[in-house]
Design brief:
Layout (H helix, E strand, L loop, with lengths): L3 H10 L5 E9 L2 H9 L3 H4 L9 E8 L5 H9 L17 E8 L13 E10 L3 H5 L15 H10 L7 E4 L15 H9 L4 E2 L3 H6 L3 E6 L2 H4 L19 H7 L6 E6 L15 E4 L3
Parallel strand pairs: 2-3, 5-7, 5-9, 6-9, 7-8
Antiparallel strand pairs: 1-4, 3-4
Length: 282
């Protein structure tokens, strides 16, 4: 990447990436990693360890839990680096992560790691959105509601941006979804919009700043009058609706409307007004 800012922007949108690092050194053993770090030019790390820069060093084992005493010893092994700034465990200017990789198998985990890395943390992915937008917290859900993680992945595939106009043509159950394959209108629309993806994700699209439209043939689903899918819930509450889901996250201003539409006899205008079509059917 051309700059550190580009890396931060990219990882901040990633759902499947945990974190992004600037690699300072690595090796098949701790000794090899330290030798690799010593060979790096001081211009790589000295600006980030200056007296006006606070720092923090953490040690993580991938597929293995490490004892606190072992972590402390590994941190002290980095004493040759010019740490001139103060320690800040809460919000440091520079965070270094020493990561030891012990493989993927939980059986017969080796005593020594297969590989060791030291890197400066640049940014983290947006995996906290998985819990924030969990279906367990959602006001209105159905039996076919899309998992939050998959929803955000599909939004990234569509490359949604603030101000985009997005349509989910099967916002409810999508029971007539396969008719889209045989509809000449939708085939032409697919050619006009190459970013057609598969996911029922109006809430996730609104999170990224898109204005959202929805349609479905099922009137009861659009108006939250179907049978509840939550355990021990016998009736739908009066406030349950697609709009209530958006209001729950302060996104109601990006909701345009939903309509009862049979996609076999679609009433949508044949004009390039949409930026993306996102649905959970194919």
């Amino acid at each position: 990447m051309e700059s550190e800012q580009d890396a931060k922007k990219l990882v901040s949108r990633c759902m499947l990436v945990k974190a992004c690092y600037e690699l300072w050194g690595d090796g098949c053993s701790s000794e090899e990693m330290h030798n690799n770090i010593r060979q790096q030019p001081q211009s790589l790390y000295k600006p980030h360890l200056a007296s006006h820069k606070s720092f923090r060093v953490t040690v993580e084992g991938f597929n293995k839990s490490l004892r606190s005493s072992d972590k402390l010893a590994k941190i002290e092994s980095l004493s040759y680096l010019p740490f001139d700034g103060p320690v800040n465990l809460t919000n440091p200017d520079t965070r270094l992560d020493l990561i030891e990789y012990y493989g993927l198998s939980n059986v017969d985990v080796p005593d020594q790691p297969y590989r060791v890395f030291l890197g400066r943390l640049l940014g983290r992915g947006c995996r906290e959105l998985i819990a924030q937008y969990s279906l367990k917290q959602r006001s209105y859900i159905g039996s076919t509601s899309m998992d939050a993680q998959l929803a955000f992945i599909m939004c990234n595939m569509a490359q949604l941006r603030p101000g985009d106009l997005v349509l989910d043509p099967f916002v409810g159950t999508g029971q007539f979804s396969r008719l889209v394959v045989f509809s000449p209108f939708w085939n032409k629309l697919a050619q006009a919009y190459p970013c057609i993806v598969i996911c029922s994700i109006l809430v996730s699209a609104a999170h990224y700043g898109a204005h959202i439209l929805g349609s479905d043939i099922d009137f009861l689903t659009l108006h939250a009058r179907t049978k509840p899918t939550r355990v021990k819930q016998k009736e739908r509450s009066a406030h349950e609706s697609i709009l209530s889901n958006l209001s729950q996250y302060g996104l109601q201003g990006r909701y345009l409307d939903v309509a009862v539409v049979d996609c076999a006899r679609t009433s949508w205008r044949r004009a390039p007004v949409l930026d993306a079509i996102i649905t959970d059917r194919q």
